Queue: 3 jobs
Job 1
Amino acid sequence: MEQSEINTNTLRAWLDTGKKVNILDVRPMNEREEWKIPGSIHIDAYDELKKKNPEALKLVDFDKSIPVVTVCAGGKTSLIAAEMLHNSGYETYNLQGGMKGWSLSWNTASIVFDDFEVIQFRRTGKGCLSYIIVSEQKAMVIDASLPVETYQEFLDHKALTLKYVADTHIHADHLSRTKELAEKYGIRPSLPSNDKLNYPFKDIVDGQDLSIGNIKVKAIHTPGHTLESTCYLINDKVLLTGDTLFTNGVGRPDLKADKEEAVKKATLLFHSIQKIIRLDQSIIVMPGHTSQPVEFDNQPIQSTLTQIVKNTPLLKESEQEFVQSLLKRIPNPPENYLKIVEKNLIGDFTDVNPIDLEAGANRCAIS
């Protein structure tokens, strides 16, 4: 019986194909509460493992015919756990890079219409959602947050022609791969009109229609989370809302803002959301993030406007109540968000390690 390490791509493939595996998370509970691997099992043994206490995992009682993958924050303490379980007769694997490495793991889910398809790329290790819209073998990528090879392999395998690569806004929780992906295909990145970016891009303005195959994608300016935030309405059926509106909450208005600016942005967000909820209530909303690790279940993260309005108390509040509620519920900011914004403004992060810079949960929503 061999005890070894496993990389995140292999574990992702196991989960994607439904392979039986027990994932043992040995981090302190406060770290697990921040983010976890879907389906993982937790034992709060971190301190005892650090001491190399042979009794640290005495409560583990798994089926020994099923492999065990151990995980911690960076892959070191979990290696101790893997060795202990191996010595107890388990087929064990330590997850290389731990949760930091796992942050780039992903899966997909799709919704299909007669004239177009939307593929949701879910960065399950962080909760970032990006999209490829496909119609008549033409494609548009929105909010690319994964290494560009992920999208490139999909586009090339399907023999798709990439027409646009766009963002909904300037991101603060992850490094945007939009510029890099666009350059791979010899096109200019498209972003909501702003005077902040330090590289050439195509302006996307309110009301603009982008043609992809035989469908239209309409840009709807929705300032609030950021001043340039823009949603994309696909053929009047699907709305990609970025960090403006989530399935159970709204975007935070405080990043890179003092209290007065946060009030102004929260007010803008209120009016942007009112603009959205005046649209056809049957429209399907697909957001830019989720606050929970994404299961490997092929079920897209989506909801209709009707359901969101019904299930989100914030959306029933007056403007004053809404603004006050948001400012009272501001969560901790994403880790390293100022540095991430700085890198996204220049469109180059070759001098940093993305895994280190993007560590931690996205913390984008208020509900």
Job 2
Amino acid sequence: MFLDSFRQDVRVGLRVLFRDKSFCFLAVLVLGLGIGGATTQFTVVNAVVLRGFSFPHPEQLMSVGLIDPKASDQTNNFGFGVIPTAQDYEDLKAGQKSFALMAGYLSGSTINVTYKNTPQRYTGSYVTEDFFKIIGVSPIMGRDFTADDDKPGAGKVALLSYEIWQRDFNGDPKIVGQGVRVNGKAATIIGVMPPGFKFPVFEEIWVPYHNEYPLKPRGELLLGANANAPAILGRLKPGVTLDQANADFIGLARRLAQENPKTNQNLTSASVQPLLHALTGVQFRQQVWGMLAAVIFVLLIACVNVMNMQFGRAALRTKEVAIRGALGATRSRIVRQMLTESFVVAVLGAVVGVLIARWGVDWLIRANKALPFPLPYWIEFKIDGPVLVFTVAITLLATMVSGFVPALLSARANTAELMKEGARGNSGRLVNAITRILVVGQIALTAALLIAATLQIKSIRNQTSLNYGYDENAVYTARIGLMEGAYPTQDARREFFRSAVRVLRANPQFDSVALSSRFRMTFDGFGQYEVDGQSYVTDRDRPQANFEAVSDTYFSTLGLKILEGRDFTIDDSDVKQPVAIVNSSFARKYWGNQSAIGHRVRIFNPGQPQPWRTIVGVVPDTLMQGPFNQQTGTAGFYMPLLGADPATQFCSIIVRPRPGQRADTLGPALSKAVAQLDADLPIYFPGTPARLHDETLGGNRIVAMLFGIFGGVAFILS
């Protein structure tokens, strides 16, 4: 009975709407824009926050980190904690009682693979033996890692992702058992993972952790970026709650802090949180929810527009409503019919909205793939069941918001009064009052969106116009990674860097060559430091600055002049006489117009004491902190890379072309020159600093563009 009546209302509504084609077209378009924007953004919320992993019982997967209760959120990895050393992972695993299984992993790592004499750098993970068992995924070919694989000195093995097996190994069905070279050592491919699997982020290959990084005694452990300490993944035992797991690991953290004050003295607490939260991050999730709120504002503005159109249309239909009332139609019947018309408009708008969302989702997928560091593979933008349920829900919301009040006011009008020519009555005055309120609200929402969009666009414009202190198009750079398998000692890495400098400087295509620890020529180290003559009451009183390890001729390669003192030499060493070069901001901060030469500075690291460095030079400021960390200030200092202790594993090679040659043409020559030094060593992240900086801002551009679209649509609708 109800369905028959509803079908009749829909047929009547369609006839009425098609008689007023201009209203129908405009209302459907307006709601389509609002629903399309909201649906598109909800696909992001669903992918990042709601859908999660496709593994068995993903709610049991947890991340663990140690916490310094008195430190900043940034120091504590925004509440998720840190693992300072590999030994901490071992001690936590041995002492914990909350996880059925626990594993460690180094995600986003460089893994160099040579196959058929062609070296290739992959993004991969070094994982412990139970990593795949915890998430419940097995290879489609071959086997998983075993305890025997995950031991120092064992035969090196690797698991491939399905995608690189198809792309770089030609989908060879006999790939299992084939030999390759991994990080300069002979290795065997033991399996291929399922299609699409790239856990935990965007991995292409997996290698046993302890085979690559043998465990060392605590006295020999490095801290910070050189520690190679794994992140922790665990699966809760049945019946164990998150609170119980936190209590368990907090107790372990306190014990480790007491037993190991050198490495763990301030890490007296711990954080156990869902793995999904750890891999997406608090700020990213907040940004995603904020963008959903923005598009809901757009949807509300669209509904208000349609409501205003409904009010205008209702004024033209007063006689029709009066006649229906005179013929015996009840108020509820009139309201139902008019709501049905609003529902039809909303459904048609939803159809348009889903089409817009399809385009929007396709654009998001393409934009994500173009980023230098795409979002984790399990964040899939797609219009699935939950997204369609959301679309249905906002369609019903749009129906009620845009149609209920006009329908109710029309039905409440006095029939006899409406039959009079030109009569408006009290309902007309009420409509005018409501319309004025809606217009004010609409303007307020639009203003809020435009302000948010303006701030985002201004932020990305500021980031793209930053002055890095040198000509970003005048040099070419690429990164290399000296893995422990091929370069097991610090002396081996230092000797390679010295050889690389000599060989590359002899290349006739390069006018100047330097090395730097800076990542993609964008950002590098950041931490606490001490200056001689300054007193500090507590550890946390030490100021923070940016620092970078560079070779000699780094500054001249970038076109920078030494303002005072001298450059590094190839023989400067942390062992002989540690030295540093400070930038002009650092020198002014501490010595004003006096000379900084001869003063001393050192990185503050209580767990691994650093040497005092004598300042031998002052150079112009460059943007050491990168585009995302402008609040840290510009003060910074440099250390000699070739004599660094500990010796770095990764560095960027920077080459300046001969006069008359473009820097962006040097890629093939640099790749060939590095291959002559080590046939198993690929270069990666190649390009001019200008291009690398531009790529780094890709994610921010997407956010700014989306806010710009939301603000623009809101402005048009208002």
Job 3
Amino acid sequence: MEKQLSKKNKAILDMAIERTHLYLQSQGTVNFEQFYLNFIRGFSSLVLIEDEKFKRIISEPDDIEMANNVLQYIVNLKEDHPIYKDLRQYISFPNFMQEDILVNSIHII
């Protein structure tokens, strides 16, 4: 089983999400803002727990292949994965929304 987020990493992530929230507001992003924040939290959590498979995927030099593989990896997370709950809503979206959120969030992450 993958590691859980430590208390220190949770605090770091909470602070980063708050700053991201302020950034999105300053950019006029109000539609679906919470969806973006939830995705960013889940994506960042996968990095912080040092999910090795995920880290290999995001180190892919080809941006298109990396984005496709990230999407596949997240959509296929199992319910017992420690970060599943953070990405559950994202996983339930139609594919076109998942792609849109990923593409529009990746520059923030």
